[in-house]
Amino acid sequence: MHHDPANPTAWGLAMQAAVLFAIDPTRLGGVAIRARPGPVRDRWMSFFVSLLDETMPVRRVPLHVTDERLLGGLDLAATLKAGKPIAERGLLAEAHGGVMILAGAERLEPGTIARITSAVDQGHVAFARDSSGAGVPTTFGIIALDEGIADDERVSAPLLDRLAFLLDLDVVTHREAIILEHVADDIRQARAHDQNVDVPDEIIVALCQTALAMGIESLRAPLLAVRVARAAAAFEGRTVVNEDDATAAAQLVLAPRATRIPADAPPEQETPDQPEPPSPDRDADQPSDEDKQNDDPVLADMILEAVKAAIPAGLLAALKMGQERRARQRSSGRAGVKQKSLRKGRPAGTRRGDLKSGARLNVVETLRAAAAWQPLRRREADYRAAANPDYTMSTKPRRVEVRKDDFRIARFKQNSESTTIFVVDASGSAALNRLAEAKGAVELLLADCYVRRDSVALIAFRGKIAELLLPPTRSLARAKRSLAGLPGGGGTPLALGIDAAAMLADAVRRKGQTPSVIVLTDGRANISRDGKPGRPQAEADGLNAARALALAGVRSLVIDTSPHPAQQSERLAKAMDAVYLPLPYANAATLSNAVKASTRARTV
Amino acid sequence: MPTLFPFSAIVGQDEMKLALLIAATDPSIGGVLVFGDRGTGKSTAVRALAGLLPPMRVVKGCRYNTDPDSKNADTISKTGAPVEVEEVPVPVVDLPLGATEDRVVGALDLERALSHGEKAFEPGLLARAHRGFLYIDEVNLLEDHLVDLLLDVAASGENVVEREGLSVRHAARFVLVGSGNPEEGELRPQLLDRFGLSVEVKTPTDIETRIEVVRRRDNFERDPNAFVGRYKQADARIRSELEAARKRLDTIVVSDHALERGARLCMALGTDGLRGELTLLRAARALAAFDGDREVTDAHLMRIAPLALRHRLRRNPLDDSGSTVRVERAVREMFAPQDERKAV
Hints:
Helix content of chain B: 40-55%
Radius of gyration of chain B: 22 Å
Low-confidence stretches of chain A: 265-295, 322-342
Oligomer: heterodimer
Structural class of chain B: alpha/beta
CATH superfamily of the largest domain in chain A: P-loop containing nucleotide triphosphate hydrolases
Distance between the termini of chain B: 60 Å
Mean pLDDT of chain B: 82
Shape of chain A: flat
């Protein structure tokens, strides 16, 4: 295509994505663009829009869109004015055949995203208020503008899963962003015969193999890759998808989703390692493709190499750091679990309720609820007036009658705080093994937490006890002081340390904050839970404590500080379901960088 | 409505398909909870199953999906003429995250209130789901007040609305199908227990299955009608099996032996309450009906036990083996010695 597939650039891929997406916006799901607002993103957007046909609508969904506007339903303002119901088409229906732009997609409500993805999956949308259940058909593509800066601000995974292209334009400089020219005609032609392009079976096989080798679990990814390959072939005027199309599709769709970097072995050799494959439920008439698969290691390999070259740099670093661990799609450790509150935070809709508990009234929604009843209540008042002449004397007729049932309470959502609990091994063995570096690293991490306004807590274990040196705090000075005064020496009561962390994590969670635990140890436990020396029992206790922490669902990280990383710490990390970081010869700065990188890797 | 992906064309995921079929055979089992990875065809399977079910008879124009044969149905309409009956597809109603309470239970009909000044009730999602499926994606992220409300209705089979000037009560019996990804949040235990069956789905990891899924999906998208045509017979077979199973359901014998087995199994696993036992037996009965057997046997109990019980276990913080493993272990321990005794 228009760039060198062996050496893809972020902008080259972005241009390619724009062209392919413009060919078939309704089938390819869409594009997620992570970039701050600026000329690069604007240029991409205007380029993309210029590629669309005039008949293709482009609709922008505002961040706090109401259900009525999104799904369609009653136009309240018009209805009140006209005195009879006026229906309006929702944005989802209006975008039919075109593109929907989600601004600030990383901040969209899960409910809004659920409505959008449901419309995408079903190809039709039901009105917000309509008991008949009939809806209107709609198919559209999505451009999700992700303006998040911090790692925890990301577009929700269910939405990303349905979008073919994931672009990062923050790495593109203004000067690099050169627009392709003279592609509009090719796109128009490609659009006309896109659906007649055949995809040979070996291409499907190769794309599936590549996806699996990259550790991509969702089956939507290879499916989207197949569709993108078809669009790529159509763009080149081919009627059959060839290797170049498949390579381009894999670079665009699969590379940004990689959760591991495959070893250099061909993917075929990896498949036997997969745990118990469920027996495929195959039709007799389906040709067996085993032979083909063996014939074609070259194709899958070739695609795989190209994909590796296209993995975004940031992701690549994170993957290397995370090594084999499959990045789980948990929400990151930083963004606290979202909490609904009645008093503070960002607005998050309304609900029926009364004003007793000091909640805040949402006046507009209350009036909206009351509006429908006005004719009824007015008539009711007339009846009463007719029945009882005194009634009108005492009560002046009111313009708008609002009753208790109409009250709508505003609800707010706030990110709960994160609390990072450091569990530091201050035993004799650890003291020998660079306790000082560990302290330095904790200090740097503390500073980082401080910047993010996270709280930190510090637990140290040595001798026969684990003590909470620093209860959760935001005071950096206090944290530093208690860390500096931390003496080393004595046995290693690992289990006690982890138990203490689990208890603190529980308390933190009860306060509505989100805990995460970072354990710095050499893993050589020698004091058991009941304070008795003895290595085997101490290690067993340590593992049990770790398992309990994992079951409590606390995010954790184990840093092995010993000069010769041994199995104990790794086993511990496994039991804790934690990321394991062996850092034998690191100083404080590299230690803290590694911790930051690995916490980031888990959010990808 | 766009063409639905055929149920019989779904590759693998046998446990999920079985659970859905069992729940559709006997709606009183209480629905299915499907927990697992994204993009595994959860929602496709639910919709496909509903599409496969025979159309149901309703009173024409009724917004509550009233069965004309039920004893509560009016036999004459307001105008005095006998009610007309029509056939409609079995509904699958989505309950979207963030749906308002009004929209779920029903509320004042805005249109009639504004245009005619009339007080009328506009049925909500629960009315539309009556006799069909209520599908909740990301059920674990659902608002607490909606969860409470759903629990009430699911338990009573009836939706009661008492608001200013509105007092409505209508039947709302549906197969609750919830899906979600456990890594994004735990489901509250009360709601967990309310689901009859639970299934854990995983993305297939073997390359053959994955290729087949992508291949079929691609074929379907390119030419839906031809694709559906290819699976028409297989779908029809499942439909007739399901219809036969529903008819047979009441004739299935549940022996005292089977009752005792079920109770013992639940005791061994320490499940809370009687709901587990009841669901286990109902599900085993539906399975027997589906298999064309006349009586519930150990084989049925063994096969259905993990689905009916795994989400009812108390979590043991020091046992990290999954609930499925625990149920299977208990089943093995219970049924194995008995068989030996029989052999003696």
